[in-house]
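Work Package 4 report. The design task specified in the project plan requires that, given a folded chain encoded as structure tokens, an amino acid be chosen for each position. We show below one input record used in the internal validation round.
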């Protein structure tokens, strides 16, 4: 939790705030009423790019600092410009339900042999205390060969985490190479149309 985001009181219209490089944010949760502020858009974009699941410390005007997680993000569909962010205040002594992204390391032996790496699951649902949360879940896939797969049940245990994703959920597999279609046999038996033509001549 090395990132601190300073929040400021909203002033002026939302469009004018965005034009100045600020984005509207709402802070709620932990038994507190929802509060509306603005924050520096560049800072929030940097956080979202590095670790959108990070626990942040926000400085509220006249209210001191609070621990929050990014709950929801709204962007402009085409430009991807940040429009609004919801911040959920958390109790550092209470468990929270969240997601952690997989980071796959190593080059699978099956891929080196021509297999195709197919990722089916990118995040794991967990319940944990905030101080046990990590940015990513490191998974070594070096040993996966063609035909091998990795399920949630195959993951190493992580201290302090209760995994909520079903154990039989497929995470990644190494599929066989795509088989090339065999070319048509040009030396096969005489086509049916030619046979029919010959039969017609015989009848005549």
């Amino acid at each position: 939790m090395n990132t601190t985001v300073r929040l400021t009181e909203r002033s002026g219209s939302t469009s004018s705030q965005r034009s100045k490089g600020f984005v509207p944010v709402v802070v709620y949760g932990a038994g507190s009423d929802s509060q509306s502020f603005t924050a520096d858009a560049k800072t929030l974009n940097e956080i979202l790019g590095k670790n959108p699941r990070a626990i942040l410390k926000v400085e509220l005007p006249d209210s001191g600092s609070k621990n929050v997680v990014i709950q929801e993000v709204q962007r402009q569909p085409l430009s991807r410009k940040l429009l609004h962010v919801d911040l959920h205040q958390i109790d550092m002594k209470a468990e929270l339900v969240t997601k952690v992204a997989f980071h796959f390391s190593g080059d699978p032996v099956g891929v080196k042999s021509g297999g195709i790496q197919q990722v089916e699951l990118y995040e794991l649902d967990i319940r944990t205390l905030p101080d046990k949360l990590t940015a990513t879940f490191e998974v070594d896939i070096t040993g996966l060969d063609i035909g091998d797969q990795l399920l949630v049940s195959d993951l190493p245990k992580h201290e302090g985490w209760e995994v909520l994703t079903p154990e039989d959920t497929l995470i990644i597999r190494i599929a066989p190479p795509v088989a090339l279609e065999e070319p048509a046999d040009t030396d096969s038996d005489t086509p049916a149309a030619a046979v029919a033509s010959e039969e017609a001549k015989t009848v005549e």
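The first strand starts at residue 4 and ends at 6. Validation will be extended to a larger panel in the next phase.
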